[in-house]
Amino acid sequence: MRANSIIMIVLAGIFGVLAVVLANMWLANQRNQMASASEVPESTIVVATVALKFGDQITADKMRQIPWPAGSIPAGAFKTADEVLVKEGSRQALQAIGVNEPILSSKITGPGQRATLSAVLADGMKAVSIRVNDVLGVAGFVFPGDRVDVLLTRNVRNADGSDQSFVDVLLQSIKVLAVDQVADETKENPTVVKAVTLEVSTKDAQKLTLAAGAGQLSLALRQVAANQGEDTARITLSDLTGDTPQDVAARQADLERQAALEAERKRNDERLDGLQKAVENVGSRLEEIGKAKPSTDAKEVVKEVVKYVQPESPTYATVGVFRGTERVTYDVPRTN
């Protein structure tokens, strides 16, 4: 037998033994890991067996206990169903809870409490409602749980007398608590609403209340995950058309001048209509008088004639003559 063949057989035997040793080591390691995993203490957690929505009452048939690693229990979770079903009163869901989702204390009311809007508010936050319509309310596509930006549109008069319109972003990433009187986040069908209730801080609540009387509020729907604010700038009419403020002021002044001329024309037309109606009334009155028949019982009219008589001229005329400083008068007969 050749030496090369002997060497190859020896090497094959060595590699075979090495492979067996390594395989045994890997299997031993896996057994140790499985043993360690089996030693992790387990606990239980309460999950929902049916989908719950805002206002649903939590009962025993809507939840169950399942095993859960003791070291990874979520904050506010319940370990047993008895912790949820306390004697003080029943609980109601404050948020949508899916099937097999853990029931947390932050998603349900306290014992004996009702599912009201005040129970949904976070610590230190306030609920403020603003009036919207089918356009300002994003055509009804805003639902409880969404986040929106609040825009304020105003029209102010400058020092030179011209009007200026602009839009500011008043608040960003504000949580919607309710639309009209519905706070259920599982609502899916879009509905045109008249009011939207927002969760804001005390200062932002003051801003919203003041802005409601200063201009027109509208909503801009944000992406669900876009909770961070962004840099914004005021938008004016010049940003829409590229005109300068002087151009906008001149165009506004021209519009006001045309409106004044139109108002003056309407007033003149109203005056002419009034005169025409007055003339028509006078003509109608004259026609009625002309058509009226004279009365047969009219009494005799006595006419009084006044004759003017020329007075007679006086017979004498008085003539005054100064003699020195004394004036002397004489009655002299008139010649004609």
What does this protein structure show overall?
The protein is α+β, with helices and mostly antiparallel strands and about 325 residues long. The protein contains six helices and twelve strands. The strands form four sheets. Strands 5, 6, 7, 8, 9 and 10 form a six-stranded antiparallel sheet that branches. It has a two-stranded antiparallel sheet with strand order 1-3. Strands 2-4 form a two-stranded antiparallel ribbon. It is elongated, with a radius of gyration of 51 Å.
Layout of helices and strands, plus pairs?
Blueprint: H1 3-38, E1 42-48, E2 57-58, E3 63-69, H2 81-84, E4 91-92, H3 117-120, E5 126-131, E6 147-157, E7 163-179, E8 195-200, H4 202-214, E9 216-221, E10 235-236, H5 237-241, H6 245-291, E11 316-323, E12 326-333
Antiparallel strand pairs: 1-3, 2-4, 5-8, 6-7, 6-9, 7-8, 7-10, 11-12
Structural class: alpha+beta
Tell me the strand percentage band.
15-25%
Helix tally? 6
Overall domain count:
3
Tertiary shape? elongated
Average pLDDT for all residues: 78
Gyration radius from CA atoms, angstroms? 51 Å
The sequence of SSEs as H and E is HEEEHEHEEEEHEEHHEE
Helix content: 25-40%
Q: What is the CA-CA span between the terminal residues?
A: 199 Å
Question: What does this entry show, briefly?
Answer:
The chain is α+β, with helices and mostly antiparallel strands. It has six helices and twelve strands.
